[in-house]
Amino acid sequence: MSYSTINLQPTFKPIDNLFLDRLRHFDDGGGQYRSQNLPKFYDYDRVDSETDHFDLKVWRVPDDKNGKTARPLFKDIDFDKIDWEDAHKGNMYGPSWKTFWFKIDWRIPEDWLLKKNDIYFEFNCDCEGLIYLRKGVPLQAFSGGGRAIFNLTDDLKIAGNQRFYLEIACNGMFGNGDQGVPDENRYFRLNSCDLVLPDVEARRLHLDYWEITDLARELDHGATKFQAALIATQIMEAFDPNDRKSVLKCRKLAQQILGPDIDSDEVYHQNPLNRIDVYGVGNCHIDTAWLWPFAETRRKIVRSWTTQLKLAEEYPEYIFVASQMQQFKWLKQDHPDVLKRIKEKFTTNQFLPIGGSWVENDTNMPGGESLIRQFLLGQKWLIDEFGAPSTVFWLPDTFGYSSQIPQICQQSGIAKFLTQKLSWNNINSFPLSTFNWKALDGSQVLVHMPPANTYTAEANFGDVVRSLVQHKNLRDVPTGLLLFGEGDGGGGPKEEMLEKLRRCRGIANTTGAIPSLHLGKTVEDFYENVLERSNHGANLPTWTGEIYLEFHRGTYTTQANVKKWMRFSEIKMHDLELLATFLSVTSDYKYPSKEIHDLWEDIALCQFHDVLPGSCIGMVYYEEVFPMLQKVMKTLDSLTEKALKHMNQSKDTEICALNTLPWQRVDLIELKENELPATTLNDEIAVVTENDIKKFAYCTKLERVLSKNDLKFPASIKKLHNDVYLLSNNLLEAKITKNGVLKSLYDVKNDREIIDTTKTKQSLGFGNQFVLFDDEPLTYPAWDTEIYNLNTFRFLEEGEVVSVVSNALESKIVVTHTISESSSIETTISLKGATGEGDTDEDNYLKFSCNVKWHEFYKFLKVQFPVTIYTPQFALYETQFGVTQRPTHWNTTWDIAKFEVCHHKFMDLSEHNYGVSILNSSKYGAAIHGNLMRLSLLRSAKAPDDKADMGEHHFEYAIYPHKGPLNAGVVKTAHNFNYKLLPHLGDSKKQKSLLDTLTLTGDESLVLSSIKRAEHDSDVNIYENIESNSKDTKAIVARVYESLGGSSKGKLHFKGIKVLKVLKTNAMEDDGEELDVVDNSVAIKLRGFEIATYKIIIRA
Ligand SMILES: [Zn+2]
């Protein structure tokens, strides 16, 4: 090869950073060299709404009769009867939340039509919009500058006048304010309403160049990085601003890096590396409510999904997944035609429903049965509409993962789980990306957390690279899922993203320098690949128990009412289902299956991962969720009352109380005085009268109200000499100071003092001590509470006793505490009289009923009990179908991170021979550190709802000391504290025979937690396409779980029904193993913490 002997003009080595920085000039749409560079050529031509190619009119949808924003559907509007107004570019539309419809008539310039070129409609009003054909077919969404182009399909590239309608909602993708309180007075400007004849090659070159320069900038090292910089420089140098054709030359240069196949899906058919490192799947996370109401979500769904249907048409490699069957149901109600189009793309594997649950629910707070129902509702809907259930639980964005999720998934036919939120941990980095997650009972699911740490990737070069390099356990199966597409407020992938991804794959094909990304494989394909390469998962690491999110710990407490009403709704539902099931298999009572189904849908909806946690804007709670849950409770009450009436006859006048729990108990019931028949009362009966209410103690074993003689341990209260009150039933003795705190709680039988009176930094030595903490998190006020505020608090010391009532049945003392000028607490501390026999021991707790006036600013109210339990390093907190263990110490950062945790009906701190539980009936936040037990009561975060929790609150909790460690007695007592006996005037024999229909005996830790009718019984089935069971049979479904963590045995007994067969099924009630029925009972056996479902098939 020849070589010059003399160097006349020396060559300089480019200065890397200067050459790299200069590359930005080429496609900078807003830069000062725009007219000299590529943006000059983006359009051939453009006409706008101010030219005679357009007629543009607008109509503001009037508010409804209550003055609220109306959102009528296309089909409900008579477009011919509207008084249209002229609309122009630059006009403002608003205020926030309102709806406008544009009527758009356009005429495409005829010379454009000869060119066989793409034609765009560009619309940008800075808010969300949806364009419809004049006949009402929704085509595609707009969302301001980020999504402004509608690429006309061929059937729309025609001459003459064409009419479209375009609906805009006066909100952005994130409502009307992000994180803060929404701006109620926002207006949106019509920036563009244009027809565009684009230079497609120039726009493609922009994308080519984007990826090549990202490669040059973002690759850490290696020759490819510099090759990319060189090619980008050559492209700039080859570009001639006076010659549009130079664009083609530039694109040819780009092929050196991108390869020749990027203008079609062909690029994915070439695989020189012979491997897939990253599976790309489109999605658009639509929060079912958050910074916007449910009503707007219904429109976000159709906006987002029609857009994705259009993309699926244009990009054959594209697969889109959508979760939350509630959203599919709304779509079916509002736009059945769009659901039909989705089903077409479902058959070609491009639009895939996923997830299995009704909504993407919170997993911390819903009760166990609720979590099962999330899946039962979701999976059955999927089977009904799409013919098959989901195999993946899809929950990218939720605030922590309770320890029984893997078991509940497995019980719902799901073995794979996807989430992402854990990358938000603000203390420790979670160590795994692909792993087995093991539940309390040992059930496991295969988990993947997308390594790019987002479910809303923009599909940039960096997202593709991070999907592999940030994988936490690359040694196992080195592949990652890339979830791309705008999300949270919906939206989903854009054309541009799919173009960028084609180029990323081109780079991998050509250079091998970046992970090989693939499109066209499903999420299930991804998991199958992981299983294949990991010996069916056996080689993957395991995470056992709760996956605690180290963030958003305030969500266990914020918006107290949604949490309280959720607990109440779940309990009322439990009671109704039990009663209705027994009545419907023993009488002519008709099981209200449609009503029950609809109520479950509402309950499940309100468990969405921003709704139940309390992180939505106020509008969601005050206009939608609170009325919805209040209606749920009211409907449940009235259905239960109807069912009780069906059981009773008008001549029945005995005071009865229906016990919906599977064990005997004694508890107080309340009846209105004027509804009581005079004959039922006599002087012997133990009673407390308050206004027109009478309280009795009902014993379910004796099936009657207790008489005074039954109370072997009557309650009483008396004032001791030193301004201390003694509340006692001779089993428990509580000493309460005149300031309303608990100075002593003494267990007489076990000779044990419960309250540790030592004065420390965190304790004044009293129980029931209210503590007011500052609550100023770094970010996200409704979501977060931070550890530093554990050090900034004051005790509420100046309480006052306002009244005292001594009664053998229930004695009490009422105390008040001032919190501030506008806030205060009134607490009734009470103790019941006891019979001292067996089961009643279990309900011997000191109860606190609080009425709070709460008008605080960034304060957190908690109540604490320092107890004489010293040795446990772990405390136990009730969770769904079991208990979760958390440290009581601060040894490591992982322990410190759990400074506030979620629990259900009880938390427990126990030494081997004695323990203390705190019970509650509507609270979820808790913490036990050292010997200090704290229950979180109320927060006062000011964003995104500045009125959150302001006003009056009522809640109850109790302290329950017990012999031995956590035991079945605690589980039962916590249930009793939540599930009230249902008083009615009836006949105790009828009540007993009804409740005897199905009973459980055996090990004490077994809980018969739910009774319902089988989903597909002919008188129950509400599904259109799922066949009903034979009319000759009916079935009862009974859920039993083991509550303490030990293999257990028991028996289910049947009475008054003709049992044909008993099956142990999964939670979806699919047929399973048959059990032997012997003497009208079946023996059952459960693993520790197992959730078991039994289907008892009977003759109808
Ligand atoms: Zn979300």
From TrEMBL:
<dbReference type="GO" id="GO:0004559">
    <property type="term" value="F:alpha-mannosidase activity"/>
</dbReference>
<dbReference type="InterPro" id="IPR028995">
    <property type="entry name" value="Glyco_hydro_57/38_cen_sf"/>
</dbReference>
<comment type="function">
    <text>Degrades free oligosaccharides in the vacuole.</text>
</comment>
<dbReference type="Pfam" id="PF09261">
    <property type="entry name" value="Alpha-mann_mid"/>
</dbReference>
<dbReference type="InterPro" id="IPR027291">
    <property type="entry name" value="Glyco_hydro_38_N_sf"/>
</dbReference>
<dbReference type="GO" id="GO:0009313">
    <property type="term" value="P:oligosaccharide catabolic process"/>
</dbReference>
<comment type="similarity">
    <text>Belongs to the glycosyl hydrolase 38 family.</text>
</comment>
<dbReference type="GO" id="GO:0046872">
    <property type="term" value="F:metal ion binding"/>
</dbReference>
<dbReference type="Pfam" id="PF17677">
    <property type="entry name" value="Glyco_hydro38C2"/>
</dbReference>
<dbReference type="GO" id="GO:0000329">
    <property type="term" value="C:fungal-type vacuole membrane"/>
</dbReference>
<feature type="domain" description="Glycoside hydrolase family 38 central">
    <location>
        <begin position="550"/>
        <end position="628"/>
    </location>
</feature>
<dbReference type="Pfam" id="PF22907">
    <property type="entry name" value="Ams1-like_1st"/>
</dbReference>
<keyword id="KW-0479">Metal-binding</keyword>
<dbReference type="InterPro" id="IPR011682">
    <property type="entry name" value="Glyco_hydro_38_C"/>
</dbReference>
<dbReference type="InterPro" id="IPR041147">
    <property type="entry name" value="GH38_C"/>
</dbReference>
<dbReference type="Pfam" id="PF07748">
    <property type="entry name" value="Glyco_hydro_38C"/>
</dbReference>
<dbReference type="InterPro" id="IPR054723">
    <property type="entry name" value="Ams1-like_N"/>
</dbReference>
<keyword id="KW-0326">Glycosidase</keyword>
<protein>
    <recommendedName>
        <fullName>Alpha-mannosidase</fullName>
        <ecNumber>3.2.1.24</ecNumber>
    </recommendedName>
</protein>
<dbReference type="GO" id="GO:0006013">
    <property type="term" value="P:mannose metabolic process"/>
</dbReference>
<dbReference type="InterPro" id="IPR011013">
    <property type="entry name" value="Gal_mutarotase_sf_dom"/>
</dbReference>
<dbReference type="Pfam" id="PF01074">
    <property type="entry name" value="Glyco_hydro_38N"/>
</dbReference>
<dbReference type="InterPro" id="IPR037094">
    <property type="entry name" value="Glyco_hydro_38_cen_sf"/>
</dbReference>
<dbReference type="InterPro" id="IPR000602">
    <property type="entry name" value="Glyco_hydro_38_N"/>
</dbReference>
<dbReference type="InterPro" id="IPR011330">
    <property type="entry name" value="Glyco_hydro/deAcase_b/a-brl"/>
</dbReference>
<keyword id="KW-0378">Hydrolase</keyword>
<dbReference type="InterPro" id="IPR015341">
    <property type="entry name" value="Glyco_hydro_38_cen"/>
</dbReference>
<dbReference type="GO" id="GO:0030246">
    <property type="term" value="F:carbohydrate binding"/>
</dbReference>
